[in-house]
Design brief:
The complex is a heterodimer of chains A (115) and B (376). Chain A has 115 residues and is mainly β. Chain A has 2 helices and 8 strands, in the order βββββαβαββ. Chain A has a single domain, classed as Glucose Oxidase, domain 1 (3-Layer(bba) Sandwich). Chain A is globular and about 40 Å long. Chain B is mainly alpha-helical. Chain B is globular and about 60 Å long. At the A-B interface, helix 1 of A face helix 8, helix 9, helix 12, helix 13 and helix 14 of B.
Chain lengths: 115, 376
């Protein structure tokens, strides 16, 4: 018997094209950047340039900050990482390990729940 | 347009109405907080005319380090700004902005080089450096909305090209340099895991690699000076581990190659003058957004700390129990005037240390302030 899944869709702005899926990893404080799992979907309030070295290990980005013209857009485009920005309260909506899909074309973030 | 500008009016009252912080916990140290005073004159800073009130921009920092920004007043200001844009005013804004950044870089290096033992000279240099930092901080706050206004102006002018993002951003440069450090350490048989395990007890060659990297990259890090950043070898060693452990180096190289791909050549022929200048000015803002924190943080670590170290001796003569880190709890105007009230410093330090949420967000531990001032 396979597990049932349901989804919740959150809409933001597509900041960097591409699609990615993986487990959420939420940055809430300075210490959290020291343990980013490879292949994760990074969930941040804002992506400052000093976090750029972490980007090659992440699959996608979910950013709370709403504007298209911001650090995350610049960096994600440079490294070809799908990114959705303007997902308000993303750090409250998602927990570490949540299954997320990021659509960097449309800005949609899909959370999959295994029931 | 002037009517709109007048509506910006008394921003102090407007700011007081905005009960919710725009950003929480951004800057906690009193010395750094005091540099945000120029933010209240941000509109005048870029040359927007017709503003007579002070403050002219609806932003302020409170004692908890929270930034308040009245969005409704920003909307009014945005409208005024759009009406103001002409090739001439854009050129003026661009020139003064670039000059403010260059002047801060020069002042930082000048302060770092100035090995003066004269208290008065160090005090004057610190005030000059602080003024230049305050100006760049004002541009930093403006960068939260001016680039969007420029982008809308471009669309209105008929531009259909993507925004002029930097071809190589400051973050991408940092990424490349950090990866180069990782590879250099690996050549010396120091994987990120081993480096973290053995640091600082590593061979001199490895130690020097990391230290020189820190010196070059000083300035990258969070906006809050008290939060650790690239000036701190312990931070860098831990970051190397976080960034590159269990990662395929080839994958990293592919990402870096992606970042280095040639930009799509755009024809500049027949581009209307207004679009050309808008794109150039927006391009500068987008590049600035990636470096705004670097400018001010580097100025602090490279230039301000040596000056504080010099000034501390004078304070110790007057106040026997004075600690170097006490200087971080002064307002820049107090520092410039040589004023230090131990009771006031004690109160501010106590308030700062009680803000545990702020300290946790920024990774500030009990030894951090002493580490900061010993890091130059």
């Amino acid at each position: 018997m396979s597990a049932e899944t349901s989804t919740t869709v959150y809409s933001g702005l597509g900041a960097s094209p591409g699609r990615a899926s993986g487990k959420a990893y939420v940055i809430r404080n300075a210490e959290d950047i020291m343990a980013v799992p490879a292949g994760s979907i990074l969930v941040v309030r804002i992506l400052h340039p000093h976090l750029a070295p972490l980007l090659p290990r992440v699959a996608g980005l979910v950013v709370e900050e709403g504007a298209i013209l911001q650090h995350a857009t610049t960096l994600a485009r440079e490294f070809g990482i799908p990114a959705a920005v303007g997902i308000r309260d993303a750090r409250s909506l998602f927990q570490d390990g949540d299954l997320l899909e990021v659509d960097g074309y449309t800005g949609k973030v899909i959370e999959r729940h295994i029931d | 347009m002037l009517d709109e500008v007048k509506q910006v009016g008394n921003m102090a009252q407007a700011a007081a109405r905005s009960a919710q912080p725009y950003r929480r916990h951004i800057v906690g140290l009193p010395l750094q907080r005091s540099l945000f005073r120029q933010v209240a004159r941000a509109a005048t800073t870029i040359g927007l005319p017709g503003l007579t009130s002070e403050p002219d921009f609806p932003a302020r920092l409170d004692e908890n380090g929270d930034l308040f920004l009245d969005r409704s007043q920003v909307a009014v200001l945005t409208k005024a700004l759009r009406s103001w844009f002409t090739p001439e005013t854009l050129e003026f804004m661009h020139t003064t902005h670039a000059a403010a950044c260059d002047a801060l870089v020069d002042a930082s290096e000048n302060a770092a080089r100035a090995a003066t033992s004269l208290d008065g000279a160090a005090r004057k240099l610190s005030e000059d450096l602080a003024n230049r930092m305050a100006l760049v901080l004002a541009y930093g706050i403006l960068s939260k909305f001016v680039p969007d206004v420029l982008l809308r102006a471009l669309a209105d002018a008929g531009d259909v090209e993507p925004p002029p993002f930097p071809e190589t951003s400051a973050g991408a440069e940092l990424m490349r340099n950090t990866f180069a450090l990782y590879e250099a350490c690996c050549v010396l048989n120091y994987t990120p895991q081993r480096l973290q395990r053995e640091w600082p007890g590593v061979p001199a060659e490895v130690f020097q690699l990391v230290s020189e990297f820190c010196n070059r990259q000083t300035g990258f890090g969070p906006l809050a000076w008290d939060a650790p950043g690239y000036e701190d070898p312990n931070y860098v060693v831990r970051l190397l581990h976080s960034a590159f452990s269990e990662v395929d180096a080839e994958q990293v190289r592919r990402r870096l190659s992606f970042a280095k791909r040639p930009a799509v050549a755009r024809s500049t022929i027949d581009v209307p003058a207004k679009i050309a200048v808008l794109r150039r000015v927006l391009g500068f803002w987008l590049d600035f957004m990636e470096r705004e924190t670097w400018y001010v943080r580097r100025a602090f670590y490279l230039g301000m700390i040596p000056l504080l170290q010099q000034l501390a001796a004078g304070y110790r003569q007057k106040i026997p129990a004075f600690q170097l880190a006490d200087l971080l709890f002064l307002d820049i105007r107090e520092l410039a005037a040589g004023i230090a009230d131990p009771a006031v410093i004690h109160t501010r330090r106590h308030r700062y240390m009680e803000n545990t949420e702020y300290l946790s967000v920024h990774g500030v531990d009990s030894s951090r302030l002493a580490t900061i001032l010993g890091s130059s």
